[in-house]
Structure formats: structure tokens, C-alpha cells
Write a structure and sequence with these properties.
With 383 residues, the protein is an alpha/beta fold. Helices cover 32% and strands 23% of the residues. Bound molecules: NADPH dihydro-nicotinamide-adenine-dinucleotide phosphate (NDP) and the ligand O=C1OC[C@@H](O)[C@H](O)[C@H]1O. The site of NADPH dihydro-nicotinamide-adenine-dinucleotide phosphate has 22 residues, from helix 1 and helix 4. Belongs to the Gfo/Idh/MocA family.
């Protein structure tokens, strides 16, 4: 791209909560701080479902440029001609309707995880994106970290030999009643907002398993896993509190063990065990906490008394810093810009079929464990 003007992507932010603020702050970090020169981002607008003044407060809080417009409704944002792509940062329950509103208005969409409440809703979004010829991606930011790409590349290149098993956990210890309220209104546990450990945190455990046992496999081996699972419900609301999923990928026989909880922690001790463990015939690669924002991995060669070490590498720990003082959410934004510049409707890193496959796993786990949201939340009815 040298000598050419960078491609500019104009963003609208839908919702003004916690992650909207973090994402937008990252979006405003100059791409040059991460050695990116081929694309750039402009913050054109933000919308609050509450009021224009709330949207303006949000823009002020992230030091938005004065040209960024506040909107008092999501519909007004979807109709804003100064916006190319909309980042959706509402609770899970609202992703389907909000994304559909934007896609039908001809906007590209980056939608927070989980894509939707269930696979049926995600399928509708994909169909509309295809019909409208606009870009659509689930915002699984973890996948776009250079260290995540490096890990995928190492494993795909046979660095671990044949991968047989991946363990992945994302659990946060919480004093659930104190932190999320006795009434269960907080989005983490609220059934009316499609809360629960699986859709909020377990999706990261599944994404690590899918990155290795599905994504980097040759296309003919990317088959749906067979799953068995267990759910323990949160007594106050009935959402899932602790969930474990065992996945077998039929084309390779490799197994994934995905766990999540809002009662125990992936990193409770002063010397926590790495929550992601990729195990191959030549050794293990483990990823340090937090697995959604990877920064360190460790390689440990397998050694046996009779055969010694099969790996051509030694034990080592690798660290990669996140440049520019941000969270690392800018890398997924850069991916959106490059895909749209290149006329792609979906990303190869977080493609539609893979998002759908992960949604199908979560659907089955919830069904088997008896965690079903209201008919309205599970429906594809719109509006
Ligand atoms: N990638 C990541 O690391 C993270 C992703 N997330 C994901 O981001 C999404 C939002 O999470 P988070 O920002 O923590 O949530 P918050 O509760 O902090 O914010 C949600 C925002 O959505 C809007 N909203 C619209 N309708 C509702 C409603 N009925 N109830 C509550 N809020 C509503 C509100 O903005 P307004 O009133 O202005 O319209 C609100 O501020 C979730 O999908 C979550 O899984 C969350 C945390 C981290
Ligand atoms: O997506 C997420 O990742 C980080 C967690 O802190 C947060 O609860 C979750 O929504």
C-alpha cells in the first residue's frame, strides 16, 4: 500500500455502555502506533437508546472529534449517511434486532459476542448481509491479536505435532449476589437479557477450541463437533452459572474441553494455571490469563524416556505486548476496514460458518441443560 492514501472506515457506535466505551477508545488510537498505515478509522456517530444527551456524554467521555454526531435512537444511527459500519454493543438479547436494523439499512455491522441468542437468529443476519452485500462479523476480538495469529500459525505448521486435545476455561470468581444484585437484573445473570456464563464467557473457551480444532483445519475437515455437556444453574434467575462442554471433532478425533463459571476463577491463585492448554504429540502450548486478551504463551516439549524429545524447539515462554496503550480491540476494527476495502462480506479470521457452528454448540448445550430464554428472545421475529 506504500504511497497510497489509507482506506478510511467511518464508524457508528450503537449503545453507550462499558464495552462501547472501551472499543471506541481503542478505535481512536492512531493506527500508526501499531504499525498500521493502510487503513484508518473515523468516529462519525454514536447512538443511545435513552437520549441524545446520553449519546453526547458518551462522545465527550471518549474525546470524540467535534464532528461526531450524537443520536437519540438506534434507528437514527442506522439512517446516518456519514456512517459505513456500526459496532453493536448492547446486551445479548438485543444483538439480533439491533444488527438486523443496521443491515437492513445497508450498513456493515461488527456485532459484539455472542453473535445472537441462538443460531437461527445468526442465520437470518447472515442471509440479510449476503442479500444486501454488506460486511458482517461477530466481534470476537481475541482472534485478531497478533499473538493469537502466531499461535494458530505455529500449531497449523505442525509445531505441536498432531493436536489431540484442547482445554480452555474462562471463569471469573464473583460474589454473584453482591455484584449482580439480589434481583438478578444485571446483564450477566438476567434471563431477559440472555445472561449466563456460557454466552458471556464460555464463548471464549469455545473460541480457543474452535481456532485450533476447526479453524486451522483444512476446509474438508472442518466438521461440526459432537458435544456432551453439563450445566449448573444460578439459583436466583435460572441462567447457567457453571457450564462444561466436551467436544469431539469427528474428522480428527481431537477433543476439546470448554469450561466456564461465574462462581470460580480461571486465575484464583497467586500462581494460576494457564487457562488454555493445546496438547499435541510433540508437546503443549499454554496461554496465560486472560484468554480473551492473550499476551503470553508457553511451549513445553513432551519427553519420554524411550524416545526423548520429538519437538525441534525447547521449552520457552513468549510475551507480546499490546501497543498504543489500548486494550487490543483495534485489531478487530482494522480487520473490518481491510475486509470492506477489499469488497469482502465476511472475514476469513472470524467467518460466518464458524460463528454459526459455535452458536449451534451453545444452542445444544443450553437445550441439554434446560437453559432456554423466553419465546420472544429465542425468536427470529422482527421487529
Ligand atoms: N469484547 C469484550 O471484551 C466484551 C464484550 N462484551 C459484550 O458487549 C455487550 C454489552 O456489554 P456491556 O457493555 O458490558 O453492557 P452494559 O450494560 O455496560 O451496556 C449495554 C448498553 O446497551 C444499551 N442497552 C440497550 N437496551 C438495553 C437494555 N434493555 N438493558 C441494558 N442495556 C441496554 C445501553 O446503552 P444506551 O442506553 O445508551 O442505548 C447500555 O449502556 C454484551 O454483548 C457483552 O457480551 C462485554 C464486555 C466485554
Ligand atoms: O467479553 C467479555 O470479556 C471480558 C469479560 O470481562 C466480560 O465480562 C465479557 O463480557
Amino acid at each position: 500500500m506504500s504511497g497510497k492514501e489509507p482506506f478510511t472506515l467511518r464508524w457508528g457506535i450503537l449503545a453507550t455502555g462499558g464495552i462501547a466505551k472501551k472499543f471506541t477508545t481503542d478505535l481512536l488510537i492512531p493506527p500508526s502506533t501499531r504499525s498500521v498505515t493502510d487503513i484508518q478509522h473515523v468516529l462519525s456517530a454514536a447512538a443511545s437508546s435513552t437520549s441524545v444527551s446520553r449519546a453526547q456524554e458518551f462522545l465527550t467521555s471518549v474525546n470524540a472529534p467535534a464532528s461526531a454526531k450524537p443520536h437519540g435512537s438506534y434507528a437514527a444511527l442506522a439512517a446516518d449517511p456519514s456512517v459505513d459500519i456500526i459496532y453493536i454493543a448492547t446486551p445479548h438479547s438485543h444483538h439480533y434486532a439491533n444488527a438486523r436494523l443496521c443491515l437492513e439499512a445497508g450498513k456493515s455491522v461488527l456485532c459484539e459476542k455472542p453473535f445472537t441468542v441462538n443460531a437461527a437468529q445468526a442465520e437470518v443476519l447472515v442471509r440479510i448481509a449476503r442479500e444486501k452485500g454488506v460486511f458482517l462479523m461477530e466481534a470476537v476480538w481475541t482472534r485478531f491479536f497478533p499473538i493469537a495469529r502466531e499461535i494458530r500459525g505455529f500449531v497449523a505448521g505442525g509445531g505441536l505435532g498432531e493436536v489431540k486435545r484442547v482445554w480452555a476455561d474462562l471463569s471469573f470468581w464473583n460474589d454473584v449476589e453482591r455484584e449482580f444484585g439480589e434481583k438478578g437484573e444485571h446483564r450477566m445473570v438476567n434471563m431477559d437479557l440472555a445472561g449466563g456464563a456460557l454466552l458471556d464467557l464460555g464463548i471464549y473457551s469455545l473460541t480457543w477450541i474452535f481456532q485450533i480444532l476447526y479453524h486451522i483445519q483444512p476446509p474438508s475437515s472442518r466438521t461440526a463437533p459432537i458435544t456432551a455437556s453439563a450445566i449448573t444453574k444460578y439459583h436466583l434467575t435460572g441462567c447457567d452459572e457453571t457450564t462444561s462442554v466436551l467436544l469431539t471433532f469427528p474428522s480428527t478425533g481431537a477433543q476439546g474441553i470448554a469450561t466456564t463459571s461465574i462462581r470460580v476463577s480461571s486465575a484464583a491463585t497467586s500462581a494460576p494455571t494457564d487457562p488454555v492448554r493445546i496438547q499435541g504429540t510433540h508437546g503443549d502450548l499454554t496461554v496465560a490469563f486472560p484468554p480473551y486478551r492473550p499476551w503470553q504463551y508457553t511451549l513445553s516439549p513432551a519427553e519420554s524416556a524411550s524416545r526423548g524429545k520429538l519437538a525441534d524447539w525447547d521449552a520457552q515462554t513468549v510475551e507480546r505486548e499490546i501497543p498504543g496503550g489500548g486494550m487490543g480491540m483495534f485489531w478487530e476494527a482494522d480487520e473490518c476496514a481491510r475486509c470492506i476495502r477489499d469488497g469482502k462480506l465476511e472475514s476469513e479470521v472470524m467467518g460466518w460458518e464458524e460463528s454459526l457452528e459455535i452458536m449451534r454448540v451453545m444452542d445444544k448445550v443450553r437445550k441439554d441443560g434446560g437453559v432456554i430464554y423466553s419465546d420472544e428472545l429465542e425468536s427470529v421475529k422482527y421487529p
